[in-house]
Amino acid sequence: MSNPSTAGFGALPLNPATLANLQRLGYLAMTPIQAASLPPALLGKDIIAQAKTGSGKTAAFALTLLANLNARRFAVQSLVLCPTRELADQVTTEIRRLARAEDNIKVVTLCGGVPLRGQLATLEHGAHIVVGTPGRVMDHLARESLKLDALNTLVLDEADRMLDMGFFDDIVTVAKQCPKERQTLLFSATYPEGIAKLAAQFMRDPVTVKVDAQHAGGQIEQRWYEVKDGDRVAAVSLLLNHFRPASTLAFCNTKAQCRKLADALTSQGFSALALYGELEQRERDQVLVRFANRSCSVLVATDVAARGLDIANLAAVINVDVTPDPEVHIHRIGRTGRAGETGQVLNLVSMDEMGSVGKIELLQGRESEWHKLAELTPTGKGPLVPPMATLHIQGGRKEKIRPGDVLGALTADLGYTREQIGKIDVNEFSTYVAVDRAIGGEAVKRLNEGRIKGKSVKVRLLDE
Ligand code: ADP
Ligand code: MG
Q1: Protein residues within 5 Å, CB atom, of ion ligand 2
Q2: Quick one: fold of 4-210?
Q3: Ligand 1, closest atom to CA 97?
Q4: pLDDT over 70 at 2, yes or no
Q5: For the whole model, what pTM was predicted?
């Protein structure tokens, strides 16, 4: 019998264009939560699915809502509720990627913190799929700018987190405004009590699928180092210089520690950024873009700030402090070693934290592998430098800039090769382009002198 975690999408009742698109996206095998939830979901069942962050939950509900969709019908047919704008943006991007197989599927994001007016205009143009936060979706329902009478699929993504944020009543209100004849899909990383209560309010005979918190897929190698409290910063730079991970997520328990560590690493010549609760949305967007596009080597974050973060191919996780909650440790380390890759987890532990290590060992059912910081030797390769640099272009979707326009300006107009250009993120008012670090400064100068879509643009290098 084949292992369900390696089953291909080909066994599912999906149309050939969708299957071909999945191949192009490199989605060759289903993840365990996809293998468990897609068969009943594609039969139209209500689903409660629980699996850890990074396990591919988005595609599980996106493929289902796309299968339920009739692109020729110009009405909102699916609604996805998410806890934050950032998660809503990530979900929108993933749905668009998965919807590429079909023409003209319109996905609209409705979140707070963005002027209503633009959203009203967008909705007037028609949408098939709406992704949004509960508060703003309720606003639009109250104004009747959003109508749900043609809805066939309701998705609650990160339901545990929406409950944490106090959205229980809002979710129930929105669900009540959806047609009774519909499919409801609930996805969550954990299963707090509130979930069953929520489901009981408006789900029909749901099938529950759960994939264990245990790590699936790739391999994780964990090492533990004893450290004195005052030596943590020095220990992090030793680890980075020794193992030279291409991208590292470093967790600290507090915001103050995050900032201190990021500053210290930066002053030692590392490319490091801090991510914590109080950043302005624009700053937060920039930090995430720079880390995800490989122009920053180390992201230092608190657990709360890193929640829901989706970054493929993290080479390493460093736990600068041990978390007192062993479940949090499992979530932290699940950021690496995904999809068959090997990930490295490096833990720094002070004497005071030994008790927390014991709890983690119990939960993981394995003993810790201890190493000494004295074993670490610099490789003599010089400072750890990220491969890319980020250019910031003033102007984004509002100016009708598309990734292809930027790529065209850099390759066709300026003669750079496709390989020298990395990820291109077009936001509402800004565009971020990763380019080979070696050409960063020159590319900025030449873009400033040239044009994108016939218009001159303002470009600068994002570097600290
Ligand atoms: P979750 O919502 O469970 O936290 P996501 O849906 O954000 O996880 O998926 C995590 C990452 O895995 C994304 O980068 C996504 O593109 C990728 N992914 C999802 N399904 C597959 C698959 N079947 N094969 C390869 N990559 C996948
Ligand atoms: Mg998710």
Answers
A1: 57
A2: Rossmann fold (3.40.50)
A3: 16
A4: no
A5: 0.57
